[in-house]
Design brief:
Elements lengths: L7 E7 L12 E6 L5 H9 L16 E6 L3 E5 L11 H14 L4 E9 L6 H12 L3 E7 L6 H14 L2 E4 L8 H13 L2
Parallel strand pairs: 2-4, 2-5, 5-6, 6-7
Antiparallel strand pairs: 1-3, 3-4
The protein binds guanosine-5'-diphosphate.
The site of guanosine-5'-diphosphate has 19 residues, from helix 1.
C-alpha cells in the first residue's frame, strides 16, 4: 500500500475518544515523553510543518487528529512525563491513555524514545499494553544523530527486549524517515 503522507489535513483536537472524528478510519497514534521530538517527526513524515511544536508542560492534554491521504488518522497524543508521578493530573492522563488504547480503530502505535535516554517504564508500559490489545507497535528512537555507537547498540538491545520493531531516526538529516513511512504503510495494510 502506498500512502501519500504529504496529503495531510488537521481535523480536530479532542479530549475524549468519544469525540473521535467521523467517518471512522484506522488510526496511527504517536506517543512520547515531552520534548522527545514527536512534533518534529510528524512534520518530517508529512513533509510539512503541521504538528504543533513543544507545547507548554502539562498544558495540552488533547488527541490531535490529522487525516492522511484520506486513508487513516494520524493521532498526535499528548506528551507524557510532565508531572510528578501519582498526581491527580497524571492519573487522569494515564486512564485517558489506557482508554484510548482500547479504542477499536487504533491499529498502529508508535512509541518514541530519545535514544540517549532509552526506554523507561512509561514507554515499556505503552508497548506492553499495545501488545495485550493486539495493536501493532513500532519503537522509534529519536535524535539518533546525537548518540554514540555504544548508545545505539544498547538501544537496539532494549528494543529487542521490548519485542518491538525498532527504528533509529534523525530529524535534521531525515535519516530513516522513508523507512518509517514504509513501516507504517505495511502495518496498516497487514492489519
Ligand atoms: P515534542 O515535544 O516531542 O513534540 O518535541 P519537538 O519535536 O518539539 O522537539 C524537541 C526538541 O528536540 C527541539 O529542539 C527539536 O529541534 C529537537 N529534535 C527533534 N528531533 C531531533 C533529532 O532527530 N535530532 C536532534 N538532534 N534534535 C531533535
Amino acid at each position: 500500500m502506498l500512502i501519500n503522507f504529504s496529503d495531510v489535513t488537521f481535523i480536530k483536537s479532542c479530549p475524549l475518544i468519544d469525540d473521535a472524528p467521523s467517518p471512522r478510519l484506522p488510526e496511527v497514534a504517536f506517543f512520547g515523553r515531552s520534548n522527545v521530538g514527536k512534533s518534529s517527526l510528524i512534520n518530517s513524515l508529512c513533509g510539512k510543518q503541521i504538528a504543533f511544536k513543544s507545547k507548554k508542560a502539562g498544558k495540552t492534554r488533547l488527541l490531535n487528529y490529522f487525516l492522511v491521504d484520506k486513508t487513516f488518522y494520524l493521532v498526535d497524543a499528548p506528551g507524557f512525563g510532565f508531572t510528578l508521578r501519582g498526581s491527580e493530573l497524571d492519573q487522569n492522563f494515564s486512564s485517558m491513555m489506557e482508554g484510548y488504547l482500547t479504542h477499536v480503530d487504533l491499529k498502529v502505535v508508535l512509541v518514541l524514545a530519545d535514544v540517549r535516554r532509552g526506554v523507561k517504564e512509561d514507554e515499556l508500559s505503552l508497548l506492553r499494553l499495545a501488545k495485550k490489545k493486539g495493536i501493532r507497535s513500532i519503537l522509534v528512537y529519536t535524535k539518533a544523530d546525537n548518540a554514540k555507537q555504544s548508545e545505539l547498540a544498547l538501544a537496539l538491545q532494549e528494543g529487542q527486549i521490548a519485542g518491538a520493531d525498532a527504528v533509529f531516526l534523525s530529524n535534521p538529516n531525515k535519516h530513516n524517515i522513508s523507512e518509517l513511512r514504509s513501516l507504517v504503510a505495511k502495518a496498516l495494510s497487514n492489519r
